[in-house]
Amino acid sequence: SGCPEELDAPEMNVLVRSPKVRSSSRLPALYYIGGGGFFTTYCDMNEIERICKEFNCVVIVPLPRMGRGHLYPSTINDIHAGYQWAYEHAGELGINEDNITIFGFSVGGGVGMSLCFRLKRYGYSPRGIVAAIPPLDDRLIYKSSQIFSGQFDGYFWSTMYRLYLGKNYGSPFIGPEAAANRA
Q1: How many percent of the chain have pLDDT more than 90?
Q2: Could you give the CA distance from residue 177 to residue 183 in angstroms, rounded to a whole number?
Q3: Cα 104–Cα 74–Cα 100 angle in degrees, nearest 5
Q4: Is 30 within 8 Å of 105 (Cβ atoms)?
Q5: 3, 107, 115, 147: least buried by Cβ within 10 Å?
């Protein structure tokens, strides 16, 4: 529970999936941040199982606070706390703390990119990040963000970021730890 930014945060659950057959005592780890549009956390358990087996790695999935009542920075604080926990408990988890890759899908990719800015401030160096279709900016200032198709379009992303940022939506005062494209 808690990261340096929010020491009194409520405890968060973390799912850990380890391969049944391990090739070594210290495996690489994938820190998997699921999507869910800032409404919920979604992770595909079949995909996690496949990744774990195919790449012989430990998959760590944080289940952060999201949705109504959990405005920024609660989500980033939670995934920071989860990463810090995995790093500090690497021996117990059987992972190499210097070989943790962040993976995020959709909102998880955007939050994962923001997490990298946060971790850098605290001296952590993830192995890398893979961000699949990440929303990176709350502002509707790009041509692509002004497309309104009725599906995952500018209106959807705008609504999603309003839920996450609350009164800080579109503010010139937020940085890349809230929306990575602000870097």
Answers
A1: 67
A2: 9
A3: 35
A4: no
A5: 147
